[in-house]
Amino acid sequence: MNAETSSRRRALAVALVSTLLTVATAAAALLLVGLSPMACDSCDAEATDRFEASLTLAYPVFVLLLLMVLPALVVTWLLPWSNRKAARRISSGLAAPSFVLLAVLAFVGLVEWP
């Protein structure tokens, strides 16, 4: 195995691990966000109004941040498979799951939980 083959395998591993981690965390995040409206099932009218108003802002922010995952994953896969681009590939590979975490944190921070 020469250096070029080893480099390609590492680049493939970065892209694959990033994609699998991002898909798993995004699925968990979507489950969390999807179940969040049930948090206020037993609230009174005033608390429900505040909760629903905060959800109307939190959902679009969550979706926008979650959509930023796609370009990061695309860049991770489409960069040339050379050692020269290894740092960029790792950076974009780390950015994808980080956007999912940022989306969850933004959603949790924007919602007025009962």
Structural descriptors:
114 residues, mainly alpha, 4 helices, 80% helix
Describe the structure.
The protein is rod-shaped. With 114 residues, the protein is mostly helical. The chain has four helices and no strands. The protein is 80% helix and 0% strand. The model has no long low-confidence stretch (mean pLDDT 89). It has one domain.
Measure the end-to-end span: 59 Å
Average pLDDT confidence is 89
Percent helix: over 70%
Encode the helix/strand succession as letters. Answer: HHHH
Number of strands: 0
Radius of gyration from CA coordinates: 19 Å
What proportion of the residues form beta strands (DSSP E)?
A: under 5%
Overall spatial form: rod-shaped
Largest sheet: none
Total count of helical runs of at least 4 residues? 4
The structural class is: mainly alpha
Number of domains: 1
